Amino acid sequence: MPAHSALADPTHAVFGPELAKNLALLGRALRLPRNRDVVTRNFVAAGAEAALLFVDGLVSRDALQQHVLRPCMERTEALGAPPQDALSELARQTLTASDAQQVTDADEAIVGLLAGKGLLLMDGCPAALLIDARAPARRGVDKPVNESVVLGPQEGFVENLRTNLALVRSGMRSPRLVTETVALGQGAPTQCAVLYLDGVAQADVVAEVLRRVRGVAMDYVPGAGQLEQLIEDHPWALFPQICATERPDRACSFLVEGQVLVFVDGSPTALGMPATLQHLIHTADDTYMRWQYGSFLRLIRTLGMYVAMWLPGAYLALVQHHQQAFPPVLLVSVYEAQSRMPMPLVTEALLMLLAFHLINEAGLRVPGSLGSSLGVISALILGQAAVAADLVSPLMIIVAAMAGLGSFVVPDYSMSLAIKLRQILYLLVANWMGAYGMLMLFLVLHTRLCMMTSMGVPFMGPISPARPHNPDLLLRLPLWLQKRRAFFADARHMARTRGAVRRWRVKGGRP
Hints:
Helices cover 48% and strands 12% of the residues. The protein is an alpha+beta fold and 511 residues long.
């Protein structure tokens, strides 16, 4: 969407002292009176004509009536202030609203009005007052859908930005936590919040995140998914370079490590950056469980990821190019089953994998509990029918099922899609060049991963390049051994943290 789209309609005007002209200016910009959800309420406040504008459905009418209209209409004496300060004096003496901001720019007033604030104008005052009385209809805090855990908190982010910020504040009660707001987009701005711990996150990383977010040149950015595509380092790469989470506890752990969080109003996820490969593989369960259990689950998860990527291609390479690796009895069984198949082995494998992904996608899109039932029944019926009709071999059914299950253990959804795409790449290369081709592709892809960055930070760190780190990569060793923040955190604060850990050990901590 180009930046010069018709969505952008700035007024480039400031308010004047005449109420009628100010209302006419806002009426032209807001398409009044055709725009019926913008309400204008005329009344008398402190002996002067005034008008209150708000968008019906985005504000609380009771709050406006109780904190704005009633106090203003009950005041009959004049304010006794210069005209340019009349509204600020009215907010100080009369209004009982908790947040009132005076603005003189018409564009800023319109943005606040469309964000759900009330707009108060008064005759003789060349300004307007934005009053926060927002009460949008939003769903309440509920369990996270994609990051469910057995242990730990059971609350997730919602579509309301203010609620999400409150969830982070309740979990991270530190005066270092800084929240900067940015208007995302040019034609229809969306409110965006950038959070970081001052002195923990590197200043260069924070500045780079703010620069990219403020530099978005689109008219409208509806959610965090679109923002992630606009600010990532390598848009052509398969792997995501920004970690998305819907859990407040995990978002707080990102802040402690020195990462920056980005929230977009209307999106129930937080973007953590910079991110490394380990952030896309780790889960909250790993930390809430004892270190033996967490390490075991990480090993299972890593094994499943490589099974999903390599198993179909490895099976194809062994059958077609490296038959000597099979035991003779198994090789006879494989060739006997394959002799009845009407299509090449690579076509058979591609059809089975695509059928598995089709069933998975259909199960996700079918509403309610019917989706999981549809996936199980479809897999059973299609698999049994395909084997009975001699379209695929039973061993290929097992390979496709194991590869599909391996892709499900990857906790990050974008990462699991990248694994599925790599699975097809390995399969095609294995059909062409066998295991040697798979090894060459592995070296090329992992070399590319080592060259990637996230907000300028190495994506494969702290492994490549090697950096000091906690024993929390493939294995999650005990928490009392983890004395460092992430390698991209502020170095001075990391030194203070290590000193604090040493003092904690001296005062009776675990040796």
